[in-house]
Amino acid sequence: MGARILTDIEGTTSSISFVRDVLFPYARRALPGFVREHGDEPDVRRWLDQVAVENGGVCSDDVIVETLQGWIDEDRKHTALKALQGMVWDAGYRNADFTAPLYPDVAPALRAWRDAGVPLAVYSSGSVPAQKLLFGHTDAGDLTGVFDAWFDTAVGHKRDADSYRRIAAEYGGNAGDIVFLSDIVEELDAAREAGMRTVLLDRRADYPTPRMGNAANGHTRVESFADVTF
Ligand SMILES: CSCCC(=O)C(=O)COP(=O)(O)O
Ligand SMILES: [Mg+2]
């Protein structure tokens, strides 16, 4: 079987600043109103209840919202936060409050790989619905159709090799056929431990100092999707 691509989002297909300076502040601002309006819906309540449990049990929605806002400030990759953020961003994309900028090399490469028959998948800490929203509203159009599979922290955390083993089992093929693209060395280390091939995206806009030598920890290093080979 040939190569299969698995890509991260933040720092890999889209800038860190889009996620930190646009998406996270939007979610932070919109969360109180969202919880007031939708907090009784079972699909929302179950995530709010998980946050309450982490807070030691029963607590008010105001406390839950403050907890979630604190987690946003810490960039915590908690599955409940990520699920709720995705629901909040839905309104932002639908109202055209923002679109998702991709690095300019990303859409052409994804389309070319797709046209060449290379399977494509996403693995992000953002929930699968949030991933689909982002790729459905990029500045290069709706790219959801290029992807064959989507993975989030339901398979486990991104620095844990077992997450990549689960992805390999679900995505199909051998782990060694999967090429994981990410800006985070610790994620690439975990993917390599699971047998995947790895490519470090080292984008100047996100990482002003090039990560050469030890800083790349043996992972193939590129600055653009145009330079990814497999
Ligand atoms: C699905 S877009 C939002 C990305 C996000 O919430 C996040 O935490 C970024 O994580 P990634 O694993 O893509 O670096
Ligand atoms: Mg990333």
Automatic annotation (TrEMBL):
Transmembrane segments: none
Cofactors (names): Mg(2+)
Reaction equations catalysed: 5-methylsulfanyl-2,3-dioxopentyl phosphate + H2O = 1,2-dihydroxy-5-(methylsulfanyl)pent-1-en-3-one + phosphate
Main enzyme class: hydrolase
Keyword list, A-Z: Amino-acid biosynthesis, Hydrolase, Magnesium, Metal-binding, Methionine biosynthesis
Origin superkingdom: Bacteria
Details of cofactor binding: Binds 1 Mg(2+) ion per subunit.
EC code(s) of this entry: 3.1.3.77
InterPro entries per the UniProt record, alphabetical: Enolase-ppase_E1, HAD-like_sf, HAD-SF_hydro_IA, HAD_sf
Pathway named in the protein's UniProt entry: Amino-acid biosynthesis; L-methionine biosynthesis via salvage pathway; L-methionine from S-methyl-5-thio-alpha-D-ribose 1-phosphate: step 3/6; Amino-acid biosynthesis; L-methionine biosynthesis via salvage pathway; L-methionine from S-methyl-5-thio-alpha-D-ribose 1-phosphate: step 4/6
GO molecular function: 2,3-diketo-5-methylthiopentyl-1-phosphate enolase activity; 2-hydroxy-3-keto-5-methylthiopentenyl-1-phosphate phosphatase activity; acireductone synthase activity; magnesium ion binding
GO BP annotations, alphabetical order: L-methionine salvage from methylthioadenosine
Any one Pfam family match given in the protein's UniProt record, by short name: Hydrolase
HAMAP family the UniProt entry points to: Salvage_MtnC
Description of how the protein assembles with itself and partners: Monomer.
PANTHER family, A to Z: ENOLASE-PHOSPHATASE E1
Biological function: Bifunctional enzyme that catalyzes the enolization of 2,3-diketo-5-methylthiopentyl-1-phosphate (DK-MTP-1-P) into the intermediate 2-hydroxy-3-keto-5-methylthiopentenyl-1-phosphate (HK-MTPenyl-1-P), which is then dephosphorylated to form the acireductone 1,2-dihydroxy-3-keto-5-methylthiopentene (DHK-MTPene).
UniProt cross-references to NCBIfam families, sorted A to Z: enolase-ppase (TIGR01691), HAD-SF-IA-v1 (TIGR01549)
Family label: Belongs to the HAD-like hydrolase superfamily. MasA/MtnC family.
Name of this protein: Enolase-phosphatase E1
